């Protein structure tokens, strides 16, 4: 039986595996991290590990909090928090290569659901100076289109009534900060590392909105003393597979039950406004800036937008991994055109040469045979992702009266994916916090399309779908968007993904539906109808 990776076995690791270059017994926990998934363990934790090794400031140990599942805690406790990060790519001959590093920054793991009060205590612990978050987009309990807190979210409703046992990250932060203030402890930094535009500002407004329902003085204290830097993190981290665990264990010569895999590329940009200090992350390649907004916009639009497009179009074709989708010539050409002609022009202020390199690098990153990432993993939670990845770009394009057909195809692919089956008839579950209202929406759109005259059916369907305000906001009121969506959705429905990709690759005239006059008629008729119909309520149920 193999020994387990832990403090005691660390010294026996093979020489080609990097190890924590500091005395772990001297670590003190300066960071509480909410959402200890693979993403955090493959970026912030390893960057903190490297920063502590470089600076020997060992006051930045991480106390990791899993919000619900005990799996990470159960795996990491016998390993004293140690785990392996495997960075994978391929050499010039296409052979996979892998660099292993055992990360020592995570000191302890807690499970919030088991003992939420212990998390509040930790936020209110004197040594805690940063609370960071990777809770995914849906963890913010906000309405995707507006960023406002959803007061009808069951966890938020629960947390307003339960100060000692909060379930949402927002509830935990606010009650933890309240305890801190009560105890006369200094304020701290709340650092969001999720893929949201203005993630720090968004977190700040959600925390303040929740706090205001409880206590005006607390709200004032948080506002005056805590900081919420915006940040952009970029590293592709697929879910770890059994074969990754087996291979890494074999290379270590000891068992690691909970390693993570990622690409070598890492880019982390943070606004340098920390209320109570920070690790020397710059020693590990982090860029500190005064304003992260341009970096966030660039990444969300040029990395995550195309990533989602690949996921939905690929999944509809029955393709399992992002890489297999990315090397399909028609999809690759589409991505390339979309990034060059529709996304890059919305990223003003970034020099062309930089953008060109960025685009090429993204295409190379997704073409990584050593790091298969399921299309369905990226396809998850589309309602939470689309606004900042694709819809914001579409809004900018519409303002300039510019072509949006490729972006509209990506959005149409999401809506088509929501039907729950691919082009071969294989079914997939819709994993999305709004799965239920979205299923009702798709059914309503079908009914509307069936009730319409044949020539108006496509527009009618798109009008109902784009009228879903929690995701689309007021975009559904823009006939040019609805018409573009109608055209793409119809092509997907009638002819499939490959035909849609060919159609958008042709000249603009050729992609306007052959029956464009009928479409214009349909737009008029459907607009009149829409004005008479109630819209989907802004508040969204689960
Ligand atoms: C992906 C991201 O799963 C997804 O939605 O688009 O996790 C992506 O891999 C990272 O943001 C890359 O930095």
Describe this protein with a few key phrases:
542 residues, Rossmann fold, N-(1-d-carboxylethyl)-l-norvaline Dehydrogenase, domain 2, 5-stranded parallel sheet, binds D-mannonic acid
What's the end-to-end separation, in Å? 46 Å
Largest sheet: 5 strands, parallel
- Taking Cα atoms only, what radius of gyration do you get, to the nearest Å? 24 Å
Instruction: Work out the helix count.
Output: 23
Mean pLDDT: 93
Tally the beta strands. 11
Shape: globular
Tell me the strand order in the biggest sheet.
Answer: 5-2-1-6-7
Low-confidence stretches: 509-542
The CATH architecture of the largest domain would be 3-Layer(aba) Sandwich
- Give the bound compounds: D-mannonic acid
CATH class of the largest domain: Alpha Beta
Write down the domain tally. Answer: 2
* Helix-residue proportion: 40-55%
Q: What is the strand content? A: 5-15%
Q: What structural category do the secondary elements indicate?
A: alpha/beta
Topology:
Layout: E1 29-34, H1 38-42, H2 44-55, E2 61-66, H3 71-76, E3 83-90, E4 96-103, E5 106-111, H4 116-123, E6 130-133, H5 154-161, H6 169-182, E7 189-192, H7 199-214, H8 216-225, E8 231-234, H9 242-252, E9 260-262, E10 267-271, E11 287-289, H10 293-316, H11 322-326, H12 329-343, H13 352-366, H14 375-379, H15 382-399, H16 405-417, H17 435-451, H18 457-466, H19 469-472, H20 479-495, H21 497-505, H22 508-511, H23 516-532
Parallel strand pairs: 1-2, 1-6, 2-5, 3-9, 6-7, 10-11
Antiparallel strand pairs: 3-4, 8-10
Helix pairs in contact: 4-6, 6-7, 7-8, 10-12, 10-15, 10-16, 12-21, 15-16, 16-20, 16-21, 17-18, 18-20, 18-23, 20-21
This protein binds D-mannonic acid.
């Amino acid at each position: 039986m193999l020994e387990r990776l832990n403090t005691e076995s660390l010294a026996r690791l093979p020489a080609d595996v990097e190890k924590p270059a500091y005395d772990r017994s001297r670590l003190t926990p300066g960071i509480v991290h909410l959402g200890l998934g693979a993403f955090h363990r493959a970026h912030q934790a390893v960057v903190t590990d490297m920063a502590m090794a470089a600076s020997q400031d060992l006051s930045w140990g991480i106390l990791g909090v899993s919000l619900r599942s005990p799996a990470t805690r159960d795996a990491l406790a016998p390993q004293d928090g140690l785990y392996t990060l495997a960075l994978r790519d391929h050499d010039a001959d296409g052979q996979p290569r892998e660099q292993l590093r055992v990360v020592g920054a995570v000191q302890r793991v807690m499970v919030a659901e088991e003992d939420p009060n212990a998390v509040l205590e930790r936020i209110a612990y004197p040594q805690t100076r940063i609370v960071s978050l990777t809770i995914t987009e849906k963890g913010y309990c906000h309405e995707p289109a507006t960023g406002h807190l959803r007061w009808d979210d069951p966890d938020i409703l629960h947390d307003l009534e339960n100060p000692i046992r909060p379930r949402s990250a927002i509830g935990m932060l606010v009650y933890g900060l309240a305890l801190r203030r009560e105890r006369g402890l200094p304020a701290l930094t709340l650092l969001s590392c999720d893929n949201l535009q203005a993630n720090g500002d968004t977190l700040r407004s959600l925390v303040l909105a929740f706090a205001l329902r409880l206590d005006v003085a607390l709200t004032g204290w948080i506002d005056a003393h805590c900081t919420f830097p915006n940040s952009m993190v970029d590293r592709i981290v697929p879910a770890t597979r059994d074969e990754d665990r087996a291979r890494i264990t074999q290379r270590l010569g000891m068992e690691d039950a909970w390693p993570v895999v990622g690409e070598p590329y890492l880019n982390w940009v943070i606004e340098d406004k920390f209320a109570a200090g920070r690790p020397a992350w710059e020693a590990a390649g982090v860029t500190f800036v005064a304003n992260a907004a341009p970096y966030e916009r660039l990444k969300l639009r040029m990395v995550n937008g195309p990533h989602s497009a690949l996921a939905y179009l690929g999944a509809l074709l029955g393709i399992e991994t992002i890489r297999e989708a990315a090397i399909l010539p028609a999809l690759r050409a589409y991505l390339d055109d979309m990034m060059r002609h529709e996304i890059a022009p919305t990223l003003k202020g970034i020099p062309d040469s930089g953008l060109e390199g960025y685009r090429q690098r993204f295409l190379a990153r997704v073409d990584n045979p050593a790091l298969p990432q399921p299309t369905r993993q990226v396809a998850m939670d589309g309602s939470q992702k689309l606004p900042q990845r694709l819809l914001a770009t579409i809004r900018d394009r519409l303002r300039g009266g510019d072509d949006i057909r490729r972006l509209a195809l990506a959005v149409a692919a999401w809506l088509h994916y929501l039907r729950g089956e691919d082009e071969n008839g294989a079914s997939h579950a819709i994993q999305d916090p709004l799965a239920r209202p979205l299923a009702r929406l798709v059914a309503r759109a079908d009914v509307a399309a069936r009730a319409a005259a044949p020539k108006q059916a496509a527009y009618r369907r798109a009008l109902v779908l784009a009228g879903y305000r929690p995701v689309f906001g007021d975009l559904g009121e823009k006939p040019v968007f609805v018409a573009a969506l109608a055209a793409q959705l119809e092509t997907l429905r009638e002819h499939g993904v490959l035909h849609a990709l060919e159609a958008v690759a042709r000249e603009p005239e050729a992609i306007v539906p052959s029956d464009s006059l009928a479409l214009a008629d349909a737009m008029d008729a459907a607009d009149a109808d829409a004005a008479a119909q109630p819209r989907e309520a802004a508040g969204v149920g689960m």
